[in-house]
Amino acid sequence: MEKAQSAMKTGVFKNRNGTRISSGNKIKCRNLPQEDEAAERRPTLPKKLSDFKYMSFDVVGTLIDFEGGLKSTLTQIGAENGVEVDGEKALGLYRAARYSDATDLFPDDLVRVYLIIAPQLGLPAERALGERLRDAAKNWKGFEDSRTAMAQLAKTHRLIAMTNAQRWAFEHFSKELGNPFYAAFTADDTGTEKPDPAFFEKVFAFVESEGASKDDILHVAQSQYHDIGISRKLGMTNCWIERRHDQKGYGGTIEPENFTEPDYHFTSMAGLAEAARQAGG
């Protein structure tokens, strides 16, 4: 397996109409495939982990602890203003504001989000503080097991980043993770966000250009809404990293209408990496 960081390929910095993406573009998703109850059930015989050539990854929430990053900055702002911020309440408010109709590209959208949620948290609704929340994304940390697990998996698989974040933020996330990716697709590159099937189609086209297919990809993610459900509908094999297994609710991630039973299920990236090692891949 060639070194991931030296071989990393990127997506095209244009949307589906050929227009270059800027931070001012709004994200609009296609309609998802029709609900199919059978498609949400776990297949009886998933492929072995060693059978996959690629592993594609959601980044924010799966590898990067964005909830911890958001809560940390909001707590700091609160302390400076004599306000105690409830972290879980903040995540709930963030989720509602983030997934409204007026969203922008992420994490630039955090400026708008902050101005909405600040009054509800008792914080000053100042644009400079919203920009501080946005810029803090540059310093968000990976989960404790992310960097080591990705380094191990990169020895045997081609790792593809599939993130709803903008390219500028992804570059910081990738560095935090040790630059493990063979290829990367961001919201800037695809012109859309997961769970839009068009995002996944960009990745399918990429692996097909290398003589492979979506059957050669294991899609790994923590979000049922953005990744696990749609990957099942598109016929991919998936792996759910249940980061909030010891916490209630969905935190900062939108709750899915229907739960999708994954092909593989771990509560950490370390669990996936160890299973892949034992499988010989």
TrEMBL record:
Region (Disordered) residue spans: 24-43
UniProt xrefs under Pfam families: HAD_2 (PF13419)
Highest taxon, organism lineage: Bacteria
Hydrolase among keywords: yes
GO MF annotations in UniProt: hydrolase activity
InterPro entries: HAD-like_sf, HAD-SF_hydro_IA, HAD_2, HAD_sf, S-2-haloacid_dehalogenase
Keywords from the named record: Hydrolase
The keyword Phosphoprotein appears for this protein: no
Name this polypeptide is given: HAD family hydrolase
